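Q: Predict the bound structure with 5'-deoxyadenosine.
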Amino acid sequence: MADPKKLFIKTYGCQMNVYDSERMAEAMGGAGYVTTETPDDADMILLNTCHIREKAAEKVYSELGRFKGLKAEKPDLKIGVAGCVAQAEGEEIMRRQPLVDLVVGPQAYHRLPEMEEKARGGAKALDTDFPEEDKFEKLKGRGKAKRAPAAFLTVQEGCDKFCAFCVVPYTRGAEVSRPAERVLNEARDLVERGVREITLLGQNVNAYHGDGPKGGTWSLADLIWELDKVDGLERIRFTTSHPNDMQDDLIAAHGECSKLMPYLHLPVQSGSDKILKRMNRSHTAESYLRLIERIRAARPDILISGDFIVGFPEETEEDFQDTMALIEEVKYGQAFSFKYSTRPGTPAAERPLVDDAEASDRLYRLQALITQQQQEIQQSMVGREVSVMFERKGRLEGQMVGKSEYLHAVHVANADVNVGDIRAVRIVESSANSLGGVLV
Ligand code: 5AD
Ligand code: SF4
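A: Predicted complex:
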């Protein structure tokens, strides 16, 4: 039998790309490929790209340029671009970088094996359609190999919100939810393969509205409650959510469903009503704060995480101070913050920019505040007992590392535990990015 061909996938961007890369690797397994950790011995290289900010897209072109030598040494090497840059700039990529043999948009991954065959035949292959069929259903099964204890599962894709700065509604298309039964089957399959924690993914995951197994439409909370019944599945998470889609049943589930972890990523982007309006967010700072209050009433210890954009067109220092005030009020356990990046084709791209040095300064100040809050919350964990699911060995001999229910990384020295074990841990120290604890 011929040696299997080797596939190297490099993933950029969000967790949905991580999930997609896994599924593509599995699909290509059906076409005789095994994955490799380095591009050097690969027969096929796939860059699964992100288009959310300008830098993310530029990285792809510089990475592609670096494969020139490899391709010269190995003319049979096939190079593909997948993900959101592929969707947005497919033909442009082919023109700008002749090394690229195939370009596949996020909705066409199930066609990847055919495209690879076409590329092997010497032709260029491009597919950025939004076909009707469910790509996940068509992608080859996940196989039966054992899995790490924490897994992602995409339940919803696309977004109809059209925030004025964001390319997602264009690159990932309209909101589509997978039918509940398919999600449940996939979850059960993951659990059979050793998974104990599932993070449900979607660009707008709490807008999930999939067909129910017996007709009707299921909300994300319905899905969570059904997953709650799956023996062996111990932890459920979901990301990313929009404030306007936090329905009552989902808020209530945070208080009532013990498998649903007390962590919520709920981006607000800005604390200024003027900017929120221009961002087309359809909520105010006040409505966001009241929502957080309701969520905390349901689950007082929930850790809130967010996304922020600073330097959105025409943001003034006063608008920025509104954002800082909102952060002060919420107290975030985690946050991702970005300087506004113009995305061609989005409504905000037409508006006057904030001075770049000013935007950088705001980002610096915002991140300092978030870091302070994060550290205070971590510090408040010292002395408390948390539940940790162990995911890997640590760098030190005998050390094991896992995640608490609040998604903090926790390391335990001389821990007599296995990967996948969930154990009570008393936190004894907090450092920059993690907590240290002892088994209880
Ligand atoms: N510029 C900067 N940040 C952006 N995001 C999305 N679009 C842009 C942009 N054009 C950020 C938002 C979003 C996160 C995934 O990326 O904060 O929530
Ligand atoms: Fe982009 Fe807004 Fe949709 Fe999030 S909700 S994916 S930021 S358009």
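A: DSSP finds 14 helices and 21 strands in the chain.
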